[in-house]
Amino acid sequence: MAKIVEEKIETKVSYNLTKRLYQYIKPYKTSLIIGIILVLAISAMELLKPMLIGSAIDDYIEKYDKIYGICDNSDLYFKGHYLTVTNIEDCDRFATIVLYQDEYYFFDDLDHNSSIMIHDSDINDFSYDDTLYYKQYSSIRLSSDDLKILRNDDIRGIRVIAVIYVIVLIANAFCNFLQTYVLQKMGQNIIYNIRQQLFDHVNSLPLRFFDTHPIGQVVTRITNDVEALNEMYSRILIRLFQSAVKIIGLVIVMLSIDLKMALYCFIMVPFIGLLTYIFKNISRRVSRVIRTRISILNTFLSENISGMRLIQIFTNEQRKYEEFKDKNTKLFKANLYRLLVNASFRPIIYFIAQIGLAIVLYNGAKDVIGGYLTIGTLYIFTNYISNLYEPIQDMAEQFSTLQNAYASSEKIFRLLDETNDIVEKTDPVILDNIEGNIEFKHVWFAYENDDYVLKDVSFTIEKGKKVAFVGATGAGKTSILSLIGRYYDIQKGQILVDGHDIKDLSIKQLRKAIGMVLQDVFVFNGTIYDNITLLDDISKEKVIESAKFTNADHFIEKLPNKYEEVMSERGSTLSMGQRQLLSFARTLAHDPKILVMDEATANIDSETELLIQDALEKMMTNKTTIMVAHRLSTIQHADKIIVMHKGRIVEMGNHQELLALNGMYKKLYDLQLYA
Ligand code: CTP
Ligand code: MG
Question: Looking at ligand 1, which residue's alpha carbon is closest to its atom 28?
Fold first, then answer.
């Protein structure tokens, strides 16, 4: 079984990678700072919520046993007494409520000391009727309405807390919305830039890159991998930060409220931390395998779908099915494994968290009973402990996604780091006008290493002349054509255009001067018009003129929408000859000085061939023309014919001279003549 090579590449979450990822955030610093402030605000509010409830419990709900002063001038009238809770120092008689066996009793007419002493445990159980006796004091049992009157203050307090709670909830919701929006927008902006940068970079890469990189892989970079980065910028990073802030805030608040309870809460933290660490490691490995397998699958898919014709011609469907099945199964298995890891993580953590909660409840309850802890504080801690585990779990989960993002970012950066070795000089020679003189001086060229496909090739082409290359397949004809536009750089020798080394010229000017007509015409998804202009600034008149000149208008005029007819991808609705004519029109509309044609007159019916021949003749006037043709009949009138063999020039001259030589050209000619 073939091992996926990429799996072995270790993702180094290096300083450099982090720094590079940060570069993209830089322009959005303001958003980031707003986001961070919102995260802090949200965390503070999260901490506040249980505190409010704890305070409601301790300060109001549980505060039935407060002391009332009995004063003449007070505001609360209850059963013959004017009661107050605010200025009790001014009073000399007191009252209080006692909870005894689920019933509330009102003791009045106490002196200050005895009122303080009243406590459930001091009461002797000799109550009868509605009266409870404590030492010399008697009391009355309180109805629910009585309690509402007496505890009006507490109800008001609870109402205030409820209002604050609702305000906090609203503020929290709003901050959450704002935070999500601001940060997601930042993420979208960042990946927009990355996508743009990637595409621009891919556009600038030399053809050499595309010789060795499958298109599917490049597409995956720009789509999937960028999406993984989006996740990171808009969600993961901020959630990690949010979790960290939550954890730190909780720890500080918990420690300051009650040291012992806080320590109970922390008991399970090391276990959760350890599991998080293990999980993080496993998930990182699995994620990387999945990414690689997705990329392999995509590459396979795009290759096969674009090569569908070939597959069906050779009835390879079954084998391709098996190959796909194998790749699909591998991806499935890797995903299943990740599922297993992810699915087992949560329940395990949940279990540990529940044990932690039990420990806190058990010890907290003991302390409440012992009178060391209020119920409100216990509530706060039981609430905080689940709040504490949540961000830890969240962090672990985010880590798995973060690994994905790091792996993706590494691949994206590797693509961005692909250098274009075909670079223009800092101050290139800009010619007023490229005339079209071409000279090759002892050119040696290899696509890879020193596997030379052109060996010591020298020739000159004067402006306006027509030169043809002939030779067996693989002789290096197409390679020569690619070199003129500097789509590849040569290893040895020199290529001159108008006396200047093409390495000194502006690449843009050079390429603009060359019109390439290739055998395999590429048609984009767009109108005929767009396909001719290639979205360059060319007037409609010029397009039509070029189409007429190259005889392409014959078929364009017959299309339902003429020049506005939308072509499908690859122009599959056009015939080979029509595509060829379209490409002539395209080339001519761009007004090149040098015309390069690679087997432009391939297998086309004789009527179209006449059109094409005619178009060619017209196009070639006043232009340096370099053509490759297998059919020698089409090049007999060339000014110079160069015969290639295994990367070398073996014969050179015009048709008559070469025939007279009685060499390779003569042999080829005879073969075709009598074929
Ligand atoms: N080659 C290569 N990498 C490429 C293109 C070509 O290694 N990206 C090699 C081919 O394998 C061939 C040699 O370079 O051995 C010359 O190729 P080419 O110039 O395309 O040959 P042509 O003479 O154009 O052959 P044909 O008549 O078949 O078009
Ligand atoms: Mg070729």
Answer: 473
Strand, helix or coil for residue 639: coil
| d(C-alpha 366, C-alpha 356), whole Å | 16
* Cα separation, 397 vs 272, whole angstroms: 13
Segment (H or E) for 297: helix 269-306
Spacing of C-alpha 510 from chain mean position = 37
Query: Among the residues of 8-72, which ranges form H helices?
Result: 15-25, 29-55
The residue whose CA has the least distance to atom 3 of ligand 1 is 447
Ligand 1 closest atom vs CA 478:
24
Please name the residues in contact with 249: beta carbons below 8 A apart, sequence gap of 6 or more: 43, 44, 46, 47
Which of 451, 477, 481, 488 has most ligand 1 atoms within 8 Å of CB, for mutation?
477
**Helix boundaries (H) for 468-590:** 477-484, 507-513, 528-533, 540-549, 553-556, 576-589
- Closest by CA to 428, choosing from 527, 507, 315, 505, is 505
Identify whether the C-beta of residue 416 lies closer than 8 Å to the C-beta of residue 297.
no
Q: Looking at the predicted structure, is the pLDDT value of residue 160 above 90?
A: yes
Q: What's the rounded Cα separation, in Å, for the pair 138 and 131? A: 6
CB 331 within 8 A of CB 297: yes
Q: How many residues does this entry show for the chain?
A: 675
**Token pair recorded at residue 402:** 């973060």
CB 407 within 8 A of CB 221: no
Instruction: State pLDDT tens for residues 510-547.
Output: 888 888 887 777 888 888 888 888 888 888 888 888 88
Q: Which atom of ligand 1 is nearest to the CA of 207?
A: 8
Ligand 1 atom 20 nearest Cα: 478
pTM over 0.85: no
Neighbours of 99 (CB within 10 A): 12
Separation CA 577–CA 561 (nearest Å): 20
Q: How many CB atoms lie within 10 A of CB 326?
A: 12
Q: Give the atom of ligand 1 at the shortest distance from the alpha carbon of 469.
A: 23
H helices of 151-258, where?
A: 152-204, 207-212, 215-220, 226-231, 237-257
Are 220 and 396 within 8 A, CB to CB? Answer: no
CA 568, 574, 580, 581 dihedral sign is: negative
**Of 210-224, 263-277, 567-581, which one has max mean pLDDT?**
263-277
Report H helices in 590-650. 606-620
Top mutation candidate among 478, 480, 490 for ligand 1, by most atoms within 8 Å of CB: 478
pLDDT digits (tens, 9 = 90+) for 10-64: 444 566 778 888 888 889 999 989 988 998 899 899 888 888 988 888 888 888 8
Is 580 near ligand 1, meaning CB less than 6 Å away?
no
C-beta separation of 202 from 222 below 8 A: yes
- Distance CA(44)–CA(38), nearest Å, equals 10
Q: How far apart are the first and last CA of the chain?
A: 48
d(CA 262, CA 51): 15
**Spatial distance between the Cα atoms of 637 and 193, rounded to a whole number of angstroms:** 53
453 lines ligand 1 (CB under 6 A): yes
Question: Cα–Cα distance between 384 and 29 in angstroms, integer?
Answer: 32
The Cα 404–Cα 407 span in angstroms is: 5
Measured over the CA atoms of residue 8, residue 12, residue 13 and residue 16, the dihedral's sign is: negative
Burial class (CB in 10 A: 0-12, 13-18, 19+), 312: exposed
Q: Are residues 300 and 292 in contact, defined by beta-carbon separation less than 8 angstroms? A: no
Token look-up 């960042």 returns 190
